[in-house]
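Run Transposase (putative) YhgA-like domain-containing protein through structure prediction, thanks.
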Amino acid sequence: MGKLDLKHLKQMPTEFIQHNLRKVVGDVLYMTKLNDKDVYLYFLFEHQSTSDELMAFRLLLYVVQIMQQHLQQGNNKLPIVLPSVIYHGKESPYPYSTDLMDCFDDKEIAKEYMFKSFNLLDLTIMSDDDLGKFDVNLVFEYMLKHSRDNLADKLIEWLLQYPNQAIYFIKSGNNLLNQVFSYIESRNDVDSEAIDKLIGVINDNTGGEFMNYLERREQKAEQQGMQQGRFLEKEETARNFLNMGIDVEKVVQGTGLDLDTVLKLKKEISTKTKH
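Sure, done. The structure for Transposase (putative) YhgA-like domain-containing protein is below.
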């Protein structure tokens, strides 16, 4: 604090900071200088009878909002924000830690991993071999790496070289399958023949299980479509019955629809009739 210029404090607005008004009496935000750089001093006044065990986390949220406001004012770097709490509650001394790490279930793991440099997977410096040898699903990452190439051909070549990656089309279920094929089909340089070839390569490298998976997926979709079709037919029958003035309970018995669905249909019919 000795390096702070406390003689030229400039009070700043705090309306943009979202507060829990049941706990916060007031706050003050100042701007000053530290080594000729702007810094913010944030003071939060607390009087609550039950102290907040997660106070350090609350302050972090407020600090982030102050930083966001600073950026919105045209600055391109984050400011230093020094938060303080002025406590005058009933419990004495203040009963909780002021360390953010104590807000985590496991403080030691938090200290080791939290608020460090973020993990980066830089595809621009990784070779295809690097991606293929990972014992994790990196199919979509490979596609991103080669998004400017003839994608289907590249992916076929890669899966032939690293068949271990093909198995993830089954292990990962619909999510990976939808992502990969939707992305491939959206490109102008891919034709249906290339997609068929890709499916064949994946199938060969999964012992034929991939085609079985696709067939099961298609059958499930057909069953869902048939069920939806039957439901719509029942709804249409119910509408006809209701328009004929048939009692709701008899419509339920005659169509097999549940009471809520029939009542909803009756309400829709009544609304249309009024208009």
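The chain has three domains: 6-113, 123-207, 212-274.
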